[in-house]
């Protein structure tokens, strides 16, 4: 058996090039057909808004296409790998490689390396292009394809946390980097979460590392008395961003932006499990492209003349599509809080990595 990890340089480049070309050819075909169908269904809604023209339809297509590319790239890698394996098997090229002393893993190595490159490209594409397109398209859809109003950062009925204490603000108005608070309620609690007192005020603004609220009125739970405090400092350490956090669109944020949003939500005392699962899935999702050559490898081995090549190709496709079903199910369970974030993002990848290895070893001969 050859001691080198890859086949010869010529064979490695040939296999990787064939795999990449076919994967992107499948991706282009899928995106073209699906984008055509999607544009047909949405163009009527877009043009129904007064003032929208054909240019708005093309604008929609430019925003929707990156989403389709990101969603179907792993499927395209799977189908490209199976097509490449089937061709190599049918032309007896796999038999020639095995006769030269190469193992199954050595034969797959060039395509695995190519898939790693495609996964890195997918992550960069998702992080820099897809997230921005998704954020813009979601905002446009919310107003039913009308002109999107400028978001000045104003929020209503905001809850946040300062240590063990809770703060509720009826209205937050942003002016630059500062926030003006209206109708503030500060709930002073002990370490066990029991309410000690409540301070309410009509107005509030940031002062140093805390917030000054006025005119303040305090209700003491133990005595049941109400007292007037005038102006008082509360919520030390609370940042203005904690008052302006709205619902986070995980798909519309890059990896670093989502990580910052999760940290801010944690500081505000809000639940973050679903967002943490989405955060780690931004890594495991593109990395699924590395699994596809392994899951589809069942089509590479076995004698083509036995008539089972088609069955092997179907088995490879089935393994790949089952992975996507399990991955989406785990992510949904993570969003519901049933699975821990790391488990929801990484368990399907690790599970099918072991399944792919087991199937490869079992079906190699």
Automatic annotation (TrEMBL):
GO CC field: ATP-binding cassette (ABC) transporter complex
Transmembrane segments: 107-125, 310-331, 343-361
Subcellular location: Cell membrane
Membrane protein topology class: Multi-pass membrane protein
Keyword Membrane: yes
InterPro entries: LptG, LptG/LptF_permease
Pfam families: LptF_LptG (PF03739)
Entry keyword set: Cell membrane, Membrane, Transmembrane, Transmembrane helix
GO terms, biological process: lipopolysaccharide transport; transmembrane transport
Record-linked PANTHER family: LIPOPOLYSACCHARIDE EXPORT SYSTEM PERMEASE PROTEIN LPTG (PTHR33529:SF2), SLR0882 PROTEIN-RELATED (PTHR33529)
NCBIfam families given in the database record: LptG_lptG (TIGR04408)
The protein's name in its UniProt record: LPS export ABC transporter permease LptG
């Amino acid at each position: 058996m050859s001691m080198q990890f890859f086949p010869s340089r010529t064979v490695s480049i040939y296999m990787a090039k064939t795999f990449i070309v076919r994967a992107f050819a499948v991706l282009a075909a899928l995106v073209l057909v699906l984008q055509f169908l999607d544009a047909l269904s949405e163009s009527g809604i877009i043009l129904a808004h007064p003032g929208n023209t054909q240019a708005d339809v093309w604008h929609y297509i430019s925003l929707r296409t990156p989403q389709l590319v990101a969603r179907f790239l792993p499927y395209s890698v799977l189908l490209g790998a199976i097509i490449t394996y089937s061709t190599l098997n049918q032309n007896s090229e796999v038999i020639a490689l095995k006769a030269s002393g190469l193992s199954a893993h050595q034969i797959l190595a060039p395509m695995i390396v190519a898939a790693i490159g495609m996964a890195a490209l997918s992550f960069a594409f998702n992080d820099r292009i897809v997230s921005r397109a998704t954020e813009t398209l979601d905002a446009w859809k919310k107003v039913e394809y009308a002109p999107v109003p400028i978001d000045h950062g104003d929020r209503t009925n905001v809850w946040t946390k300062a240590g063990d204490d809770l703060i509720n603000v009826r209205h937050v108005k942003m002016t630059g980097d500062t926030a003006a608070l209206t109708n503030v309620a500060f709930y002073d609690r002990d370490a066990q979460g029991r309410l000690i007192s409540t301070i309410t005020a009509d107005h509030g603004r940031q002062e140093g590392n805390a917030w000054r609220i006025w005119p303040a009125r305090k209700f003491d739970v133990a005595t049941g008395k109400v007292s007037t405090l005038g102006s008082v400092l509360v919520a030390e350490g609370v940042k203005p961003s904690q008052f302006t956090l709205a619902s986070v669109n995980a798909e519309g944020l890059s990896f670093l932006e989502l990580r910052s949003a999760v940290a801010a939500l944690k500081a505000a005392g809000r639940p973050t499990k679903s967002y943490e699962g989405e955060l780690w899935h931004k890594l495991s999702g593109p990395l699924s492209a590395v699994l596809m050559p392994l899951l589809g490898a069942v089509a590479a081995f076995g004698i083509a003349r036995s008539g089972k090549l088609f069955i092997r190709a179907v088995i490879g496709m089935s393994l790949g599509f089952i992975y996507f079903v399990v991955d989406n199910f785990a992510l949904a369970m993570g969003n519901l809080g049933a699975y821990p974030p790391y488990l929801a993002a990484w368990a399907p990848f690790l599970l099918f990595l072991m399944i792919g290895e087991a199937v490869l070893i079992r079906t190699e001969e």
